[in-house]
Design goal:
The longest helix has 17 residues. This protein has 2 domains: 119 residues, Rossmann fold; 76 residues, no CATH class. It is of the alpha/beta class and 239 residues long. A 5-stranded parallel sheet has the order 2-1-3-6-7, sandwiched between helices. A two-stranded antiparallel ribbon has the order 4-5. The radius of gyration is 18 Å and the shape is globular. It has 9 helices and 7 strands; from the N terminus they run βαβαβββαβαβααααα.
């Protein structure tokens, strides 16, 4: 079982330069590209990171250890992240911090109602924003003492992880497509494409989400996204 006791001998104290030292963060995130960005943010901050790519995997993690903070994407392949947030909010002992994330900022209220301590809209690349948000979830004795410099650096994850995400969505679109599938694709791509600064795919994901929101058929939008995904997989130089 992982310990989060700040006084335990094996848990280093946070410092001004590495304010998240001693923390273990579980990222429940299905995007390899987004998780790579979070890995870099944790590395720069001193935190350890573990990843679960779906609700089922996250629940397996909690049978073995308890992280300090859980960062939960709301759009997961096997369900809604708010379900896991609600479970963790009621668990005893409760994890110190539950941070909800999504490429759709309109989901903030839903996440907070489920029991999240805070919400961040993806993409998440700012080191200072990440550090301040995580620290705000912790009690005062878990934060570094004294003044800290604000580091305005942003992280740039490896584009090979973006290609992995494109391959994942290509596989999703090859299966039987349902309304849930389309909602998942739109939400997944809205965050990941913004992180990659892929404006064409961002616009395509937005168009799909808008059609789904009003209950209209989205065959043309789905076909466009499928074509864009295949183009990115074929164009290795662009990735």
């Amino acid at each position: 079982m992982d310990t989060t006791d700040p006084f335990a001998a094996n848990v280093p104290a946070p410092t001004a330069a590495r304010p998240l030292l001693g923390l273990t963060i579980l990222a429940v995130e299905d995007s390899r590209f987004a998780c790579e960005a979070m890995r870099l943010l944790c590395l720069r901050s001193g935190a350890r990171i573990r990843r679960a790519d779906c609700l089922r995997s996250a629940r397996r993690h909690f049978r073995v250890y308890r992280p300090s903070v859980v960062v939960i994407d709301l759009g997961l392949p096997d369900g809604n992240g708010t379900d896991l947030i609600a479970e963790l909010n009621e668990s005893v002992p409760r994890v110190e911090g539950i941070l909800a994330i999504s490429g759709d900022g309109h989901l903030r209220d839903e996440a907070m109602a489920a029991g999240a301590d805070d919400f961040l809209e993806k993409p998440i690349t700012s080191l200072s924003v990440f550090q301040e948000t995580i620290l705000s979830l912790l009690p005062p004795d878990r934060r570094p003492k004294g003044l800290r410099p604000i580091d305005e650096v942003t992280v740039a994850p490896d584009k090979l992880a973006y290609r992995d995400d494109m391959a994942h969505i290509a596989d999703v679109l090859e299966d039987q497509i349902s309304g849930h599938t389309l909602d998942y694709v739109a939400q997944f791509l809205s965050g990941v494409a913004r992180l990659a600064d892929d404006t064409i795919l961002v616009d395509a994901a937005r168009a799909l989400a808008e059609k789904r929101a009003v209950g209209e058929t989205a065959a043309s939008e789905t076909a466009r996204i499928a074509g864009l995904i295949q183009h990115r997989l074929a164009d290795k130089a662009a990735i």
